Amino acid sequence: MSDHGTGLLTIGELARATGLTVRTIRYWSDEGVLTPVTRSAGGYRLYDAGSAARLELIRTLRELGLGLDDVRRVLAGERTVAEVAAAHVAALDARIRSLKVIRAVLSTVARRGSTAEETTLMNKLARLSAAERQRIMEEFVAETLHGLDHVDPDVRERIRQTSVDLADDPTPEQVDAWVELAEMLQDPAFRAQMRRAVEFNAADRDPEAPPGRSLWFARRLVELAGPARQRGVAPEAPEAEEVLRELFGDADRGAVLERMTAGDRVARYRELLAVVNRQPAPPHAEDFAWVVAALRARAGS
Fold first, then answer.
1. Which of 9, 39, 89, 265 lies 20 to 30 Å from 230, alpha-carbon distance?
2. Is 272 within 8 Å of 215 (Cβ atoms)?
3. In whole angstroms, what is the distance from residue 79 CA to residue 75 CA?
4. Cβ neighbours around 217 below 10 Å, total
5. Do residues 23 and 33 lie in contact, with contact meaning Cβ atoms separated by under 8 Å?
6. Beta pairing partners, 9
7. Alpha-carbon distance 243 to 291, whole Å?
8. How far is CA 25 from the centre of its chain?
9. Full-model pTM
10. Cβ atoms within 10 A of the Cβ of 157, count?
11. What pLDDT is stored for residue 210 in this prediction?
C-alpha cells in the first residue's frame, strides 16, 4: 500500500503488486480500460484495490487474446465474458482453418518446388469458398451435359450430383489434388474431352434401353478383365483377345479405342475428386487401363 496516507496505489505500486509493467498499466489507462480513481496533488494517477482486481481481469482477457474493444465492453457491462468468449472462439476457429490451409499450401509448394506464379495460383484456388468451388463444378457439369438428352439417366444423375467438398483443414495432398482438379475443370481441352466421353455414351445408347445400361457395361468389363489381369495375362497376349471379343464382339477396335481413350483424363478427374472429397479411390481403374492397353496393342492390326 501507499505510504502517502490515502490508501491508494500509485501506478508503480500497482505494477509491483500485480507483476505487470508500469508501461502496460499506463497504456491500458490511456486506452480507457483502467481508469484511475483519482490523481495526486502532483498529478500522478492513483488506484484502489478494486483497480487491482479490474487489472487482473484485463490481464486474463488479454492473455486469452481478446482485443481492447472487447475488454472495454466486458468491463462496461455491455457484454458478458461468456458472450465475448464465444465470439472469440468462432474467430479463432476461422483463423485456425485459415492457418491450416496456409500450411497445406506451403507444404505443397515445398514438395512441388513451385514457381512464384504457381504458388500464387495455388493459394488463390485453395482459399476459394465452398460455394465458389461448387460453382466451378456446376458450370463444368452444365457444359458437359448441355443438349445431351440421350445420356444414360443413371450416368447423367451421377454427373449432376458431383460435388467438391474440400476439408476446412485440408492435407497437402488434398490441396494438391484440388489445385490440379480446378485447373482441369477450367481447361477447355479437358472440358471438350469430358464432353466427348459423354457424347459417346449418348450416341451408343438405345433410347429404349433401361437406365444403368452403361454402368452394366463397366461391371461386365471388370468381371472379364479383372480375372485375366490378375492371372498375369499381358494386354498384348493372345488370351487378351478373348476378353475383347466378349466385351465388344466384332465392333471396330479403332472406334472402340477412341471411345475408351476419351476417358483417359476422365479417370484422373475421378481420382482427384476422391482425394479432395476424402473418399476411396475409384475401383477397378487398373482393369480399364488393361483393356485400353489391349485395344492399343491391336490398333494397327
1. 265
2. no
3. 8
4. 15
5. no
6. 47
7. 8
8. 44
9. 0.55
10. 11
11. 55
Q: 471411345: which residue's cell?
A: 259
CA distance 92 to 132: 23
Which ranges in the chain belong to alpha helices (H)?
Answer: 11-18, 22-30, 49-63, 68-75, 81-112, 116-126, 130-145, 153-160, 172-185, 188-204, 213-230, 238-248, 253-261, 264-276, 285-297
**Cell representation of residue 133:** 468451388
Residue with cell 457424347: 199
| Ramachandran class of 278: left when φ > 0, alpha when ψ lies in -120 to 50, beta otherwise | left
Pick from 6, 9, 12, 22: nearest CA to 49: 9
User: Averaged in consecutive runs of 10 residues, what is the pLDDT profile of the chain (301 residues)?
Assistant: 66 90 92 89 88 89 86 87 84 76 77 76 76 88 83 78 83 85 88 79 59 62 86 90 84 74 73 89 77 81 51
The grid cell for 266 is 476422365
Q: How many residues does the structure list for the chain?
A: 301
Alpha carbon distance 39, 43 (integer Å):
5
Beta bridge partners of 46: 10, 38
Which grid cell is 124?
Answer: 488463390
The single residue listed with the C-alpha cell 479417370 is 267
Closest listed residue to residue 151, CA positions, set 185, 220, 109, 201:
201
R_g over Cα of the chain: 33
Q: Cα 96 vs. chain centroid, distance in angstroms?
A: 14
**Cβ-count burial of 229 within 10 angstroms (0-12 exposed, 13-18 middle, 19+ buried)?**
buried
Q: Which residue has the cell 466385351?
A: 247
β-partners of residue 39 are: 45
